[in-house]
Write a structure and sequence with these properties.
Strand content: 25-35%
Keywords: ATP-binding, Nucleotide-binding, Transport
Organism: Desulfosarcina alkanivorans
Shape: globular
CATH architecture: 3-Layer(aba) Sandwich
Number of strands: 10
Helix content: 25-40%
Order of helices and strands: EEEHEEHEHHHEHEHEE
Number of domains: 1
CATH topology: Rossmann fold
Structural class: alpha/beta
Strand order of the largest sheet: 6-7-8-3-9-10
Number of helices: 7
Distance between the termini: 20 Å
CATH superfamily: P-loop containing nucleotide triphosphate hydrolases
GO molecular function: ATP binding; ATP hydrolysis activity; transmembrane transporter activity
Protein name: ABC transporter ATP-binding protein
Oligomer: single chain
Family: Belongs to the ABC transporter superfamily. Macrolide exporter (TC 3.A.1.122) family.
Length: 227
């Protein structure tokens, strides 16, 4: 599903060049439930953003679902993100003026799905994540955990090949975070979506079926667990 080969990425901060990733190699198979773990500044979020095509590496190649990202135009990258990748952001990134159902349906709107089908699919997936009676509520009327569930529903409603989640439990209490991870594990199992997290939350690491530790821009450990 993902193949990163000799990935390097640097950023300029003031007068200093910071090497965020140093010759990283990583292969992720379809259906994995994987966490990129490490302290702040380790490079895990940079790697997640590169896999999602939100940024491009300085060197090396990344293939997602068989497509080499460096060969795509900006429009091609946008199309790949729209059709093959679901994103779950730490800050939820819901549109405040839209209802939960409208937020979930927004990606399908961009994909050109008709209004009736969008509504039906949005309500169905909200029911799957335990929010079947909250489709007409706006984000301000939902708790943090409920908003993140809407974000999960939005990410998976169109059946993406891969879901990328950046610190998905960072703004949640432990009980809500545990429930969210259990939900995403179920979606991984039942829908076959590949999940990749960036995290420094031990609870996320404990749920991961594969744990990749990153430190100072390098992978220092890669452990698969029996599930």
């Amino acid at each position: 599903m993902v193949r990163c080969s000799n990935i390097r990425k640097s950023y300029v901060q003031g007068k200093v060049t910071v090497s965020a990733l140093k010759a990283v190699n990583l292969t992720v198979e379809a259906g994995e439930f994987l966490a990129l773990a490490g302290p702040s500044g380790s490079g895990k979020t940079t790697l997640l953003n590169l896999i999602g095509g939100l940024d491009l590496p300085d060197a090396g190649t990344i293939r997602v679902d068989g497509t080499a990202l460096n060969r795509l135009t900006p429009a091609g990258l946008a199309r790949l993100r729209l059709t093959r990748i679901g994103f779950i952001f730490q800050a939820f990134n819901l549109i405040p003026v839209l209802t939960a159902a409208e937020n979930v349906a927004y990606v399908m709107h961009l994909q050109g799905v008709d209004a009736g089908t969008r509504r039906r699919r949005a309500l169905a997936i909200l029911d799957e994540v335990g929010l079947g009676d909250m489709g007409d509520r706006r984000p301000a009327e939902l708790s943090g955990g409920q908003q993140q569930r809407v974000a999960v529903a939005r990410a998976i409603v169109s059946g993406p090949a891969i879901v990328l989640a950046d610190e998905p439990t960072a703004n949640l209490d432990s009980a809500t975070g545990e429930a969210l991870l259990t939900l995403m594990e179920r979606m991984n199992r039942e829908k076959g979506a590949t999940f990749i997290f960036s995290t420094h939350d031990q609870m996320v690491m404990d749920h991961a079926h594969r744990l990749v530790h990153i430190r100072d821009g390098r992978i220092e450990d890669d452990t698969r667990r029996q599930t």
